[in-house]
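Two folds, back to back.
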Amino acid sequence: MTLVEENLNAVEANVISQKASETLWQEVDVCRKWLGDELDNIVSQVNIVASQVDPTLQIVQLFLEKSKNKINEGVGSTDDDSKFTSCCANSMYRITETIINDKESHERLFDELSSRIADIMAACLTNLPQVIAMKCHTSVIEKREACVEACSPTFWCD
């Protein structure tokens, strides 16, 4: 997805969002954290037994609160890390608020999120041939070889 995003959406206005999403993804994937908080700690705050509220909804509400806090912490800051964190927190705030306010999604939350993720993946796969053509059709052979090497990990699964 990164290859598609960097090549087809490389306008200046999207650079901060792209860097923020890459930073956030690395934090989640490698460090198992969301905006600095351990994911296991967030899940452990959910009271499954005593609560009448759906545990998934409780997790979404925790993400909403954490996003609000991060937005308030980043107000007025000018460094890149704060910009990235604020961008991610704003996005998560909007997503979680939409989920919480949409009463129907409480029962279908997993299905809705899975569908949205699948749509994003499908859009990237649809654009992949265009990106490969852009990267590989260059006149200089050395540059073409490097572009093919950059595209090739896209096709390998671990």
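---
second:
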Amino acid sequence: MDFPPETLATLSNINESLKKLQKAVKDFTNISYDEHLQRPAIEQAEIHMSAMYATVALAAINEKLQGNDPGNNDELQIEIKRVQKLEARLKEQRDKNLRPRLNQYAAKAFVRNAMFDVNEPSKKNNDGENMDIKEEAEDSNEEDDEEEEQEDEVQKMNRGYIPSLMNPPSFRPAGYHAAFKRPLPFDQYLCEHFFPRIPEGDDTIVTQALLQRNQALMPSVAEQASINQMVSKVKQILDNVQNTPKKVPNVEIQEVREVGSFKKGTMMTKSNIADLVVILKTLPTVELVMTLGQKVVDELKSEQKEIFGCVSRPYGCEIAGTQAVVRIYVTIIPPNVPLLEPDLHMPAHILQQNMAMIRHSRWFEENGNTSTMKVLVRCLKDMKKRHEGFEKFSVWHIELIVHYAIHHTPNRQPLPLSHAFKRFLQLLSTGILLPGSPSLSDPCDRAYPLNSFYDDADMDAICCDAQTILR
């Protein structure tokens, strides 16, 4: 059977391409995986890049054989961008390795001998130690440290390391002091047997004041009804989008969760706002999130003859009605994190913060679902609004310290409301959030103590305001 010349030419080109591909992948197909791991990190990264190029090439050939244009395949283009980004980082690393290094010891010796007498004896410190030898050792250690940093950088490339996600900008600001550790803040509730109490006055007045303030801060029946109805409608619409993938183009929802004050039962009057976290299977862009929000608004308008609007926010979008507001926080499933493009999709640290809201709500539901804690959190949120020093005080951190103040006692018996309120202020006053203090750790992310989220001025303001209130 004779084939047309065009077909033979195409088959010949495919054959040549496959031969080149076979030659390119020869380096990592002829050895075992254990042998591959013994190679230098830079070589491993280069082989990974070659494998990615080979996979992309096969996918492009497959698209072409099916009569499709590879340039129109969005997923293929995303993979090509990832390979190009890895290649650029590898080139930067190679250039860094080839860059000539200045021998600091030789440079110092040259300057000293050029400017002073060559026969001048070697410098010695007060202990009689030769400073030239010490400087040479320090320079050698610096070069070793630099090589280790470069090795770590390549290893991070090999495992798909994402700096913006692993270490978001909000973590470990200038106020973090790891070198100096203060002693534990004085807490009289943990050492009553050493410091016996003198008889205190009746705490009934403080308790009644807190309960009355809590009653005044609670949302009215009408506010609760309107926010419950709004959340119910929005969740129903989002569930329909989740069960009907083609309902909103390019939007696939994994899950919808209630979070924040609405979920925890600590909402306040005149702040009729509920929070929902939407976990997407697709990669979120600002336009895509606005499309989803506008779909929710259109559905609400068709069911209720009211005015609704959708506003874009850094965390996602906000669905506003005349009686209530629902904020939609967007995040993604973990396997899609490496596919994020900084200039195209929502920032990775924003998505991570939104995902953390789910963990916070789950923790509160399991550990803080008591009337004492809800009353105290609501009153302290009101104090946060009225005191300038508490402006930067995170509500999540308020909840954690309130839980500590109520439940962390020698006999494990929870404190009453008035005692927990005073203990909360005493903990802040004695410096539990000051720089270097052995502060509480975030139970949802134990790598970071609470005081690592504030700068020095904010920590000082929180401590000073707590001392003023306590007086």
